[in-house]
Amino acid sequence: MCHQTIVVRSAPTAEERLPGYLLRIADINGYSGPRDVLSNALTKFGNIAAPHAIEEVARLLGLPLATATNLAYIRSGKSNLRFFGHEVPCRRVSWVNPRLCPLCLRDQEVISCLWDLRFIQACPFHGCQLLRHCQTCGQPLTWHRTSLVRCRCDSDFRKQQTPRASHSAIQVSRRLAIACGLNGVPAPTGFDTALLDLNDLLFLINFFGGRARGASADQEHTQRQTLGQEAIVESAGRLFENPAPIIIEIIDRRAENQPNYKIGNLIKFYFNSVNKYNHPRAKDLLDQLQSAARSYFNVR
Ligand SMILES: [Zn+2]
Ligand SMILES: [Zn+2]
């Protein structure tokens, strides 16, 4: 099919990125999916972030090139991409296997790119797990569907229900949603990370989550390869409730094997943060990190 322009146009919302936006445009224009909208521009949907594709998207949808560029998951620098105005490591975002919150979709028929953030395991607003598989046909969600709100089997995602997520997963999602600048996010419990920028929060989630488990550095390294996002989020969520004692425990454990390995990251993070977050509300987090670092140096 050859589309010169798209008849019914609609500006992207702040939470939309190209895959979800194209799905919405396809839906309201009666196309058979995002690939159909772009059939003229792309040979493969996977090329969606290629520069020539972005130009074509801008032309087809009547968007300024800068807007179309912001919608795409384009790498900036070596391995970062722009996400809610932050440069985050590419590995923290994945849009290949779409996920969604059925309740959010009921409220607003928009696909939020927050669901592409891999540490988001729960809806920060509704507290439910994200939907990954259609509960009627069991198939994984796909971008290649004709309707924003329906599966290819025609089941309405808005009527599907996912189980309540764990407390940790909900709290981590809330921290992330706040760092992304979303409005109306319920305040998380535990100490306040609202001042951390998205990248620093991602660092801490990964640091806490990945290190709360294995006994030795080597084991941890191996375990990290296989540690699922859910497990990282679970551990991190627990540490955020009361991090200081557990940070010390991690440091102690680490010190038995490789005294300075990686602990430097936490300390570096602390000292960078002191300059970066010159704000009273950041004090709680920084004090706890500092006490962990101090304890390490005093005790050893
Ligand atoms: Zn939701
Ligand atoms: Zn289905």
UniProtKB/TrEMBL annotation:
One Pfam assignment: TniQ
Where do the TniQ domain residues begin and end?
9-130
* Protein name per UniProt: TniQ domain-containing protein
Tell me what organism the protein belongs to: Sphingomonas leidyi
